[in-house]
């Protein structure tokens, strides 16, 4: 029989639409004003902190809907923004030194819906508010680190070739290597030139010194590498923060733009993004005199540092391994329930660690945490001067030859171990960065954008709705039902996909999808009209109308989908937001405009003897 779906197919269409409506429903519940409290610099938030927050709010008669601990953070929900702002100011004044107190908007989704994965759509920076950073890469420090790396390579290479030298040190913008005799100087110059074609070598036989400088091309490549590598590392850190649809891209020669939609805890974001943290492994100088070092007589090959408890430690300057070789890091607890960081190295790092520890079994090795912090001082070029802070986080005896995997202890808390693992896993920044501009988009402006975008969608939907109703009569009602189902399914799919984010350009993509969805029905309905005018029966006209128009609809939508996928692949920011909703809208409109309307038409008109059709 023509135009009759089996019952299972009709039920399947209804189930798919119902699932879309179910996962779109969390967007109807809105959000609760909230305050988020999280520890700074590894300070944990625990039950005692929760009680302290409750006590402050109760003592000052600030009513709250609930206060819970979620993901090592405290979330206090309020019934209105007035109580939210009062609570933020109160907590910021009383506990703000050790904790980050930030405004937040928390979904008010019912627990039963949240338990099956129902969450509202994530909104972009232009709709939900958030924070935008403009960060500047310190290129001078990038060059310095590159030169320090060259010094280590020169020393290792010369030792490997058994070429004796006196010193290798940095002098201004050059590296100077001093030798004992002219023969060693000549051998070293020949060897190093072959290994480093992109460096400039100049020897002085009178002083037995070889001077090495970077070429302009090498300097340019170093700066470009520092910028690109910092962008990659910052992207990794943003992913670790769990921010949906962030924007990280370069701007000019030494700037990076970072947009974090929906982020209210700017202190936590800045702590993670701005940290230039890495670690070094060095041997403890057991032969040196610690008392003499404390009095200012530090051996030239050693350095005096301190542990976190203030205990002085005399270390060898020579670095066994740096954090650049770390490919993975995670936090856990050791057999004594102390926080630890488990580290995995790349193959080169594993070899260095193995060679560095094989002859030092039984000797103490220190793990040094290094961080660069911006100061208020600037250099002659106007660049911010960074202060290098070195701290010993653990001293342990090497029990056996280490390889690619090992662990370090000494973190003050599990939260601090987690943050250190995050930084090491995401990578150490090639050069320090500083925030030169911070811009916050408030939730009020975002709400206005949401309202205007929603009005645009409703106006487009309403005009199309009226046109289809007037021009195609009863079949126009079917098309409008499919159009409404399409909008619901777009919202449902956007809510289900973890990485999908709705932006203002994304709303434009939804408006475009509304027109494209109706376009498929126009093709089908006009073909049905042509078949009826050609003298065919109503049932044959419906059947032929859907079948004949199907190939045209598929061709048109697939070409548009390909274009949308290309936009998503190569675009960033607003372009990607537009491509996301357009791609989802094309797929859902194919389902609702073709399969969905066919199911309704078959259920209402299919298999019946009809002389005319309201189309």
Automatic annotation (TrEMBL):
Residues 433-594 form the Protein export membrane protein SecD/SecF C-terminal domain. Keywords: Cell membrane, Membrane, Protein transport, Translocation, Transmembrane, Transmembrane helix, Transport. The keyword tRNA-binding does not apply. Pfam families: Sec_GG, SecD-TM1, SecD_1st, SecD_SecF_C, SecDF_P1_head. Residues 227-285 form the Protein translocase subunit SecDF P1 domain. GO terms for biological process: intracellular protein transmembrane transport; protein targeting; protein transport by the Sec complex. Residues 304-431 form the SecDF P1 head subdomain domain. It is a multi-pass membrane protein. One of its GO terms (molecular function) is protein-transporting ATPase activity. One of its GO terms (cellular component) is plasma membrane. The chain crosses the membrane at residues 452-471, 478-497, 503-525, 546-570, 582-605. Residues 2-103 form the SecD export protein N-terminal TM domain. It is found in: Cell membrane. Part of the Sec protein translocase complex. Interacts with the SecYEG preprotein conducting channel. SecDF uses the proton motive force (PMF) to complete protein translocation after the ATP-dependent function of SecA. Forms a complex with SecF. Part of the essential Sec protein translocation apparatus which comprises SecA, SecYEG and auxiliary proteins SecDF-YajC and YidC. Belongs to the SecD/SecF family. SecD subfamily. This is Protein translocase subunit SecD. It comes from Colwellia chukchiensis. The gene is secD.
